[in-house]
């Protein structure tokens, strides 16, 4: 289970002074993308950069990168073992996420990074990553309703928890497209701390940095992607003004065309897992806000070619599945429900019973075929390919489902037999 608090991580890192500067990123949606854009810019500018995001995508160690490359498994396991040994010796009883956070920070020390881009796990105020003390810039991404049992039932209480990463004397960059309630709550906290803050608007950021306009057009970005990129550019600008004012931001912006953020609006081929030639869409949308974004994208990009969409869906236990799936699945769509397997290093994460998802989806008026595949992801995908018949096919509802499918594809491409 998730246990928030800074006492255990403080003891775990008590004898490990962090030798690098940090950019700390909190929010409900978009914080991973912002972190990815930001670390890409830093690496492109010649700054040795580490990035720590969660959850991992395929392997447990791919959540830690050095200069845009995932750390080697051998290094990860070596440092992780040292951290776990310290935890046991001191009798701390750190959580899995706290052990992972300490491992990432130790690796950043060992790899001598200059800047670590660190994504908050859950919330902010009591998240293990909030042990950071040498922060250059704090970033608040889009905030929505999620993790209510830990952060509170209102958008204001959730915002206050996420604003807990803000620190005296540290400039704050905020996604200015947040709801008025979020903006008001953040402004109150920013005023209390006497901080300088920038509320990012893509229109304003593009006027300051014209190369962004070319990126937006060439990549045909969605509105939230533009905002995330602008938040990263703004945070980069302020971080570099303190460390490397000689680096010219606008010369690096074109490099953002190369950034890929797997599992979010990602198109992939299913071959050789299936005979389907057409690519499919993967998206880890798992709450109302991210589902709304995915729904707009599907309606704009996929439905015009053929109004019916086929879905493969799963969800984490405890999620409001009606809020998520009723906003993206439309009358006439076909749906396969399934569940993801155990999540390495995150034993508290469980999948929603696919039968519950069937009940949720079947309550959509005019829904097409709905089939429950229990834990058989490959069976669900193959059925969906047949139902789609070359038309739009989307895998969504959980990043853990996306991770399992990407892992299956990797193993098949490597010639490994699927496990029964």
Automatic annotation (TrEMBL):
GO terms for molecular function: ATP binding; dihydrofolate synthase activity; metal ion binding; tetrahydrofolylpolyglutamate synthase activity. One of its GO terms (cellular component) is cytosol. Its EC number is 6.3.2.12. Pathway: Cofactor biosynthesis; tetrahydrofolylpolyglutamate biosynthesis. It comes from the Eukaryota. The keyword ATP-binding applies. Keywords: ATP-binding, Ligase, Magnesium, Metal-binding, Nucleotide-binding, One-carbon metabolism. This is Dihydrofolate synthetase. It comes from Monascus purpureus. The gene is FOL3.
